[in-house]
């Protein structure tokens, strides 16, 4: 029995449609579901009741809460913070900051040894006037306030970052920063 050309075309067509269906569906599923690890390239600031105006590209997260209030909660989470999780959160900072010993500043100052460092003191980095004027040191609490909401805590900073909305993530991040030093800074007990 011979398969004539018409028959062959029909069979080939059927096979192609089946393949298309299988791979098409697979692609659509993958596009939607991702690999479980899908993360948006940036975090949209949480909607805020207060209108929380000034940060470019959106209001600061949890604008209802002052940086001071948030920092108290974050510091209270430090004894149980997880530096390993903090390392993952640091990816949000790594687009602008290196945090390795003896590396030059990039968009932002090098964050190696930043815990308890004097504010605005990384050699050769051109800090904003607002940052230079603030004075003091980067204690855990100061870091918590700033990273929670950079523009609210230091209006005029040139760090263009909306802030972290999760207190737990921020505590974990601080625990990670504390490890980045010749002598890691102990977390409060
Ligand atoms: C879009 C770029 C950008 C991102 C993202 C960013 N930063 Fe910054 N950061 C800067 C710049 C620029 C400065 C200098 C700010 C100034 O002079 O006002 C800075 C300053 C700082 C300082 C002050 C350091 C010092 O030497 O006084 C700390 C601490 C800091 N950033 C932590 C972080 C952390 C933690 C993250 C992630 C959660 C982060 N930054 C994300 C750009 C960025």
Automatic annotation (TrEMBL):
Membrane-spanning ranges: 12-29
Keyword Hydrolase: no
Record keywords, A-Z: Electron transport, Heme, Iron, Membrane, Metal-binding, Transmembrane, Transmembrane helix, Transport
Domain of life: Bacteria
Molecular functions per Gene Ontology: electron transfer activity; heme binding; metal ion binding
Region (Disordered): 45-64
SUPFAM superfamilies: Cytochrome c
Domain Cytochrome c per the UniProt entry, residue ranges: 81-181
Protein name as annotated: Cytochrome c class I
